[in-house]
Amino acid sequence: MKKINLSFSFTRWIGVVIKEIHELRRDKVSISMVLLTPIFQLIILGYAINMDPHNLPTALLNYDTERMSHIFVTEAQNTGYFSMIPVDSEEAAQKAFVRGDVTFIVTIPEGFTAQDAAWRKASAVNFRGMPSIR
């Protein structure tokens, strides 16, 4: 039985490319399909895919219920990127995160407004999350 050589040969590959070019030159419809289809797909898919996130479900754990924290939450929601879902405890936020109900957990610490009003360095707002694969 004759052994078949399945290894890559650059010479054979060039031969196939030249043969395909000759066939494409004879058929104008094939040339237009080869050239226009990728351009058409690029235009259509470029407008169809939107990588700008909107209304990301976000668990809000607000330990500071005063004015500045409400302003912070309102401003975050007004951006259109976050949809704040209030939760009562850290455990509830973690469960919602693990279930995939929320993408982020935002924790506003106690005393956030008081530190801002006293012109001290404000407590950091804690953002936790991971990229969504949905």
Could you walk me through the main structural features you see in this protein, from its secondary elements to its overall organization?
- With 134 residues, the chain is an alpha/beta fold.
- It has five helices and four strands, in the order H-H-E-H-E-H-E-H-E.
- It has a four-stranded mixed β-sheet with strand order 2-1-3-4, sandwiched between helices.
- Helix 3 (67-78) links the parallel strand 1 and strand 2.
- The model has no long low-confidence stretch (mean pLDDT 85).
Task: Offer a concise description of the structure.
By secondary structure, this protein is an alpha/beta fold. It has helices spanning 10-26, 28-48, 67-78, 90-99, 112-117, and strands spanning 56-62, 82-86, 104-108, 126-129.
Give a quick set of tags describing it.
elongated, abc type-2 transporter like fold, 134 residues, alpha/beta, transmembrane helix, 16% strand
Largest sheet, if any? 4 strands, mixed
Q: Quote the CATH topology of the largest domain.
A: abc type-2 transporter like fold
Order of neighbouring strands in the sheet with most strands:
2-1-3-4
CATH superfamily of the largest domain: abc type-2 transporter like domain
- Average pLDDT for all residues: 85
What's the alpha carbon Rg, rounded to whole Å? 29 Å
Question: Secondary structure elements and their pairing?
Answer:
Blueprint: H1 10-26, H2 28-48, E1 56-62, H3 67-78, E2 82-86, H4 90-99, E3 104-108, H5 112-117, E4 126-129
